[in-house]
Amino acid sequence: MAEEWTTKRLSIRWLSEGVKSSFTPEYGKYTQSWSRYRLAQLAKNVKDAVDLTPGTSRGYDRPASHVIEAVQKAIVDKAFDYPSSRLTSDLRKAISERYESKYGLETDPQTEVCLTVGAAQGIDCALKILVNPGDEVLMMDPDYGPYEPHVRYYQAKVVPVPLDEPKPGEYRFNLEQLRKRITKRTKLLLMSNANNPAGFLYTKEENEAIAEIAIKNDFFVVADHVSEEILFDGRTLHNIATVPGMKERTVVCSSFSKAHNLSGFRIGYAVANSEVIEHMNTIVGCTTDGLVTPGCVAALSALTGPQDWIRKHVEDLQKRRDLMVDRLNKMNGVACFRPHGIYWAFPSIKGLGMPSHDFAEYLLAEGKVNVRPGVWYGQNGEGHLRISFCVDWEWIKKGMDRMETAVAKLPAKGR
């Protein structure tokens, strides 16, 4: 079924080679594209399913009240045109000030900050600017699922850098795995911090080690920081751009989607050297003609208004994390790391004896719970699931109850 689906799409005569390559990853029983399609089709026919796949917490929570009020006022004041130069200038300045206060790194808001349509456009622009066909792009494995097909669109080669898993479900960066994959074709390293889906943070020492290799071998780092506000247990995120020599070769992409529940407004930003930002501004202008005005208003209000909401929001997410992780670790054959950041659990299900896609299908059919297979996030993500705890309390409880029952029904030899 998967082979037929893929072959049909590869036979389309006019389809670009970049898009075709995105359908054919170099590993796995199923392609990521087919697995996404298959589970989406199955989910349509499952009534009363508990959806534990969301990428934002908008389903159970609203943005801060002062953000909503600012947007409402802007709409009443007829914010239906492109954002004014003053609005975008104020927003870039607020981002620059937050960046400096958070990481201690000075940036010029006019020349080193680009406003983008979500972090995704920032990453896309970075790839457009930096990557040529045949270049090699290092990518942590596992890491954010859409990175791989995205890189392939530009006909670059994805070079996975396997993360260690010293304990089931608990990943760690391995410097030697990175070092031995460097070649003359290496153009950049693409990585999320906190790691999506594994939930760990790169330490200052690890970022310094990565930086040393990047400087020595003259490649860029594109750092996805969409979860930089969602950190648990009092932890802080170390920004690799703060390492001496890295400001000029790092592109940090972030957005207001995750922490501030503003995904629908598609507002993000990139911080990089002025030459990269100059090209990025040109691309954003050519491809979008401008940003969403209410989104710029919302982002500015989120940065400059009261910060109590985000603190309470993260505290609440931490409680949801603890509930889900505790439940998962009580299931036979399942082992789950307690994430340091972002709002997904990535438990190991290797003890259940089923590939992650197959178990996701089984869980959807047998337990009416929708989750994402770990293989979407790389070959090294196989044997895991990505499960969202940025959902309603009752969804977490009901989803864990149903998953526990479904796991108990599996043959003992599979566990």
Structural summary, described in words:
- By secondary structure, this protein is of the alpha/beta class.
- Helix 9 (204-217) links the parallel strand 7 and strand 8 (220-224).
- It has two domains: 2-61 and 309-414, Aspartate Aminotransferase, domain 1 (Alpha-Beta Complex); 80-304, Type I PLP-dependent aspartate aminotransferase-like (Major domain) (Aspartate Aminotransferase, domain 2, 3-Layer(aba) Sandwich).
- It starts with a helix and ends in a 7-residue tail after the last helix.
- The strands form four sheets. Strands 2-10-9-8-7-3-4 form a seven-stranded mixed β-sheet, sandwiched between helices. Strands 11-14-13 form a three-stranded antiparallel β-sheet, with helices on one face.
- 43% of the residues lie in helices and 14% in strands.
Task: Please outline the helices and strands.
Blueprint: H1 2-10, H2 17-22, H3 32-44, E1 50-51, H4 65-76, H5 85-103, E2 113-116, H6 118-130, E3 136-141, H7 147-153, E4 157-162, E5 164-167, E6 170-172, H8 175-179, E7 186-192, H9 204-217, E8 220-224, E9 250-255, H10 257-260, E10 268-271, H11 274-288, H12 293-304, H13 308-328, E11 344-345, H14 356-367, E12 369-370, E13 372-373, E14 385-388, H15 393-408
Parallel strand pairs: 1-12, 3-4, 3-7, 7-8, 8-9
Antiparallel strand pairs: 2-10, 5-6, 9-10, 11-14, 13-14
Helix pairs in contact: 3-14, 4-12, 5-12, 6-11, 13-15, 14-15
Main attributes of the structure:
2 domains, single chain, alpha/beta, 14 strands, seven-stranded mixed beta sheet, Aspartate Aminotransferase, domain 1, 415 residues
